[in-house]
Design a protein that fits this description.
The protein contains 21 helices and no strands. By secondary structure, the protein is an all-alpha fold. It is found in: Membrane.
Length: about 450
C-alpha cells in the first residue's frame, strides 16, 4: 500500500511566481484536468457531428443532450465516493486514487461501448453507452476534484485551479477539434476507440500521484451511523459556516450574466451575418486559446491578491467584456472586431473560472471534500441547467441585441454586491483540519 502524502499545510510559504507550475503536485493536477475534460465533447458536440453524418434525426440528436443529467445530480452519489471503500483498490491505492482508477476504467469501457455502436443500425445501444459514459465521467469528476483539493496545500490551490482548467481545456481540444480531424481519416468507431485509449493518460497520473492523508474509517459502523456521517454530515457541517445560505446563493449567481451571453451568442453571430467558417475560427480556435491564457492569469492573480479581490476583479472584467457584445451589435460586420470581443470575453471567462474554482475548493471542509465540491460545482451550473431557458424569451421580447447584452451583463452585478457583503460578514475562507477532523477512533463529529 502506498503511503499517503503529508496533509496539506494552510500556512506554509508560497512558492514564488511561475515556479509554482513546476511543482509536481500542480503538474499532476494538470493531467487530472485533461482526464476530466476529455469526455465532455465526446458526449456533446463531437457526438452530434457523428450522429449528423449518419443522418440521425434532429429530434433524436436533441434528446442526446439529456445525458448532461448525471453531472447535475452527481451530489446524490458523491457521499459513496467520499466514504465508501472499494475492495482491493482502496487497500492498494487509498480512497481517492482507488475510486479515481475505478471510475476511469469504467469511463474507458463506456467509451469503447460507444465505439462499438452503429447508430444507423441501433441507436438504442449508443444511447445506453452514452448514458454510461456520462455517469462514469461525472463520477470521475467527483473523485478528481476531491483528489485535486486534498493533494494541494492552501498555497497552491489557486495555481492548481489554473492548471486543472488548462488541462481541462486541452482535453476538450483533443476530444473536439482533434476528434473531428481524426474523423476525416478514419471511421467514427476508431475515433472513439482512440479517445478511450487516451483515458490511460489520466490513469497514469492517478497511479503516480501520492494519496492524500485521510483518517482511517472505523472498522464497523451501523448503517444509520454511516448515513449520518457520509451523507448528512457534509451538508450540516457546511451549514455551520457563518452566512452559509448566502454563500450558496453567491455560488449559483456569480456567473449568471456570462451564462446569458454565451447561450445566445451563436444565434447572435448568425443573425448578424457571420458565416459558420468565421464563427468556427473565432469561437473554437481563438476562444480556446484565450480561455487557457485567462485561466493561467486568473489563478496567478487570485494567488497574489487573495480570493475575494481576485473574484471581484475577474467578475468585473467579465461584466465589461460581456458589455462589449452590446457594442459589437451596433457595429457593421467585422471579423476582426468579433475576434477581439470574443477573445477578451473568453479570456475574462478563463480568469473568473480559475478564481471561482479556487474559491469553491477552499470552501470544502476536511473529510467531506468530494461531497461538498460536487454540491457546490453542481449548484454553480444551476443557471445553465434551469435559468438559461429564459434567454431566448428575453432576446425575443427585448428585440434588440445591444439591449439584450446590456441586461445580460448587468446580471453579473448582484453577484459582485453579494461577494462584497460576504467578505465582511460570512465565513468564506479555508477552515483548518481540526474543525470536523476525525477523533481517535476515526469517526467525525456531526453538527447538531
Amino acid at each position: 500500500m502506498t503511503a499517503p502524502s503529508a496533509p496539506p499545510s494552510a500556512t506554509g510559504p508560497a512558492t514564488a511566481g511561475w515556479t509554482q507550475w513546476l511543482d509536481r503536485r500542480v503538474l499532476t493536477v494538470l493531467f487530472l484536468g485533461f482526464a476530466s475534460g476529455l469526455p465532455y465533447f465526446l458526449l456533446f458536440s463531437t457526438l452530434s457531428a457523428w450522429l449528423t453524418e449518419v443522418h440521425v434525426s434532429r429530434t433524436a440528436i436533441g434528446l442526446f443532450a439529456m445525458v448532461r443529467s448525471p453531472f447535475t445530480f452527481k451530489p446524490l452519489w458523491a457521499p459513496l465516493i467520499d466514504r465508501l471503500p472499494l475492495p482491493v483498490l482502496t487497500r492498494a491505492l487509498g480512497q481517492r486514487r482507488g475510486w479515481a482508477l475505478a471510475t476511469q476504467a469504467a469511463l474507458m469501457l463506456a467509451l469503447l461501448a460507444m465505439a462499438s455502436s452503429d447508430p444507423a443500425a441501433n441507436l438504442y445501444w449508443l444511447a445506453v453507452a452514452t448514458v454510461a459514459t456520462s455517469f462514469a465521467s461525472a463520477s470521475q469528476d467527483i473523485v478528481l476534484d476531491a483528489l485535486r483539493i486534498e493533494l494541494l496545500p492552501e498555497t497552491l490551490q489557486a495555481p492548481g485551479a489554473s492548471a486543472y482548467l488548462v488541462g481541462y481545456r486541452l482535453g476538450m481540444i483533443v476530444a473536439g477539434a482533434g476528434a473531428l480531424y481524426l474523423s476525416t481519416l478514419m471511421p467514427w468507431s476508431t475515433v472513439y476507440t482512440v479517445m478511450a485509449a487516451l483515458v490511460a493518460i489520466g490513469m497514469v497520473a492517478v497511479v503516480l500521484a501520492p494519496e492524500p492523508a485521510r483518517p482511517p474509517p472505523p472498522p464497523h459502523q451501523r448503517f444509520d451511523v454511516w448515513v449520518q456521517e457520509a451523507v448528512v454530515a457534509p451538508f450540516t457541517h457546511f451549514a455551520t459556516r457563518r452566512g452559509w445560505l448566502a454563500i450558496l446563493v453567491f455560488v449559483a449567481i456569480y456567473k449568471l450574466g456570462d451564462v446569458y451571453v454565451n447561450v445566445m451568442a451563436t444565434n447572435f453571430y448568425l443573425s448578424e451575418g457571420y458565416t459558420k467558417v468565421e464563427i468556427a475560427a473565432v469561437t473554437k480556435m481563438l476562444s480556446m486559446a484565450c480561455a487557457i491564457a485567462g485561466a493561467v492569469i486568473g489563478g496567478a492573480l487570485a494567488a497574489r491578491i487573495g480570493q475575494v479581490r481576485g473574484l471581484f476583479l475577474c467578475g468585473t472584467c467579465m461584466i465589461i467584456t460581456n458589455l462589449m457584445y452590446a457594442v459589437l451589435a451596433t457595429q457593421p460586420h467585422s471579423v476582426v472586431l468579433l475576434g477581439l470581443v470574443v477573445g477578451l470575453e473568453f479570456f475574462a471567462g478563463g480568469m473568473s473560472a480559475a478564481a471561482f474554482t479556487a474559491f469553491l475548493s477552499r470552501l470544502c471542509d476536511a473529510g467531506f471534500t468530494a461531497t461538498q465540491y460536487a454540491l457546490l460545482s453542481s449548484l454553480a451550473t444551476l443557471p445553465l441547467d434551469i435559468l438559461s431557458g429564459g434567454t431566448g424569451w428575453l432576446a425575443d421580447h427585448l428585440n434588440s441585441w445591444p439591449l439584450y447584452f446590456t441586461v445580460s451583463a448587468s446580471l453579473g452585478v448582484p453577484g459582485l454586491l453579494l461577494l462584497a457583503w460576504l467578505a465582511r460578514t460570512a465565513d468564506i475562507h479555508h477552515r483548518p483540519d481540526d474543525i470536523g477532523a476525525a477523533d481517535q477512533d476515526g469517526s467525525r463529529p456531526v453538527p447538531a
